[in-house]
């Protein structure tokens, strides 16, 4: 059989989604090509894909309710672990939990991390990266500038000595360091001073004075000079987050490895200052600790430090996802850590035929008016796809996407029966 490549590609190029899927009574192909949840999809789409297993659904809702509305404000900690085989939908459940948490009136800051790394410092670095480097620096700088302006200390007096005019008005409002525009970030604030200083020695003295003030503020707030120095470097833009975390294993940065509890505490303080009542960390693919990437010594150290982090910082909620095999490996490495990770254990099973059909309907309804039918698939075709995928939703969804595309290629196919599905599963 001769394949006309140009004709095939030209036909697809000229087709709109409406033309391509209309005969199947769909607006688009709703099944993910890779079979995996899209971490960038909208919250509404995530919420539409509710957990299929009623027990799992109730367990995740109970976890959210018990953590989000905990009455003890100083002990909010609740640890949950989602387990299941590869491809059972652990990522989707994490994202579903995140969307529900963020949709409620209780203001919660929820961070999804798809790979925690192999050290706790990498995990903390991922938290900052997920908050957003610029946003995090803005949060830090807001703390600093508020303290500088606080009349209960003399920071503003110390800095005003460097102004050509103590009120900062000699060269116009744009050069007043304490104007709204110039308080926006460290660079603008510093430049407003430097624009009024021509003397090199005075500029150097100003830099040192401002640095000393910032470090004093940050150290007082965090009770730690190392963390204060780290945060100062972020504010001053000496290097970005990625480079910063590279320095952890060398030079003074290595000391941050022993500061993860204080560092997480400082991050939670910063987030709470923005008006958030709860702090959630949702960590996917938590298997690294048992994947063989770490030596036994490194695994033991990770387990010990994570246990200490969980015990000492109580103003956060942690929800992780990993395979059942990985959880059993953690039990062997560190039974105390496994106990702490399973305050709540939510176990996702493979899909029964009824559950798979329900999942398919949920996806189809993303691309049509809500309905309880399987069309354009027959029930027999769905049973075949589920069985051939080992009842794993990731594999099944990937196959459904492929089969639906092939049906859309055919002009005369309006219903995908078991024979059509079988022909494209070989």
TrEMBL record:
Stored PANTHER family: GENERAL SECRETION PATHWAY PROTEIN A-RELATED, PHOSPHORIBULOKINASE _ URIDINE KINASE FAMILY
Source organism, top-level taxon: Bacteria
Official protein name in the record: Uncharacterized protein
A Pfam match: BrxC_BrxD
InterPro entries: BrxD (IPR021228), ExeA_AAA_ATPase_DNA-bind (IPR052026), P-loop_NTPase (IPR027417)
Native species: Christiangramia flava JLT2011
Signal peptide stretch: none
């Amino acid at each position: 059989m001769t394949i006309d490549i140009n004709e095939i590609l030209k036909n697809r190029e000229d087709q709109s989604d409406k033309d391509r899927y209309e005969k199947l009574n769909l607006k688009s192909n709703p099944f993910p090509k890779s079979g995996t949840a899209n971490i960038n999809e909208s919250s509404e789409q995530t919420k539409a894909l509710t957990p299929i297993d009623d027990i799992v659904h109730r367990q995740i809702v109970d976890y959210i309710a018990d953590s989000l509305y905990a009455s003890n404000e100083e002990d909010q900690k609740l640890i949950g672990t989602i387990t299941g085989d590869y491809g059972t939908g652990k990522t989707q459940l994490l994202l579903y939990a995140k969307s529900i948490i963020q949709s409620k009136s209780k203001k919660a800051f929820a961070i999804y991390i798809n790979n925690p790394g192999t050290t706790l410092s990498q995990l903390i670095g991922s938290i900052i990266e997920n908050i957003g480097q610029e946003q995090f620096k803005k949060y830090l700088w807001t703390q600093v500038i508020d303290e500088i302006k606080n009349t209960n200390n003399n920071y503003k007096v110390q800095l005003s000595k460097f102004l050509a005019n103590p009120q900062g008005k000699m060269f116009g409002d744009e050069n007043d360091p304490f104007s709204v525009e110039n308080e926006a970030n460290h660079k603008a604030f510093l430049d407003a001073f430097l624009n009024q200083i021509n003397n090199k020695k005075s500029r150097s003295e100003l830099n040192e004075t401002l640095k000393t003030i910032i470090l004093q503020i940050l150290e007082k707030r965090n009770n730690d000079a190392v963390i204060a120095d780290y945060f100062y470097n972020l504010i001053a833009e000496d290097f970005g987050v990625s480079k910063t975390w590279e320095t952890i294993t060398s030079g003074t940065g290595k000391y941050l490895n022993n500061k993860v509890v204080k560092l997480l505490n400082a991050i939670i303080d910063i987030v709470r200052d923005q008006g958030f009542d709860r702090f959630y960390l949702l960590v996917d693919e938590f298997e690294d600790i048992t994947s063989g990437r770490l030596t036994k010594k490194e695994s033991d150290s990770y387990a010990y430090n994570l246990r200490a982090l969980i015990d000492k910082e109580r103003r956060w909620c942690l929800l992780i996802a990993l395979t059942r095999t990985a959880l059993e490996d953690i039990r062997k490495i560190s039974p105390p850590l496994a106990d702490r990770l399973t305050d709540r254990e939510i176990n996702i099973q493979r899909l029964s035929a009824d559950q798979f059909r329900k999942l398919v309907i949920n996806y189809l309804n993303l691309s049509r008016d809500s309905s309880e039918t399987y069309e354009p698939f027959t029930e027999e075709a769905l049973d075949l796809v589920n069985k051939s995928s080992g009842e794993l939703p990731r594999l099944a969804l990937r196959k459904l996407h492929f089969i639906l595309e092939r049906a859309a290629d055919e002009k005369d196919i309006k219903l995908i029966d078991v024979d059509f599905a079988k022909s494209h599963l070989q």
